[in-house]
Amino acid sequence: MTGIVVFIKPNFFTNQPPLWLGFVGVILNGFIIAVTKVTTVNLDKSASKLTFLHKWLIGKSVNEYDLRQIKKN
Question: What is the pTM of this model?
Fold first, then answer.
């Protein structure tokens, strides 16, 4: 967010940071958004399935498991 503020409103800060610092901030934030994964776990007892859905900016993957494959300890 700071990187965007440096570009849009450079007078916001008391000591004006260099413009390259704003560029680095925008690039790093974009990288973090691109590689962050969100995992959703769905337990469906009626279908006897356990599903893991992994989503990120560039794609997704789904792993399904049959509940009968899971062993009790």
Answer: 0.54
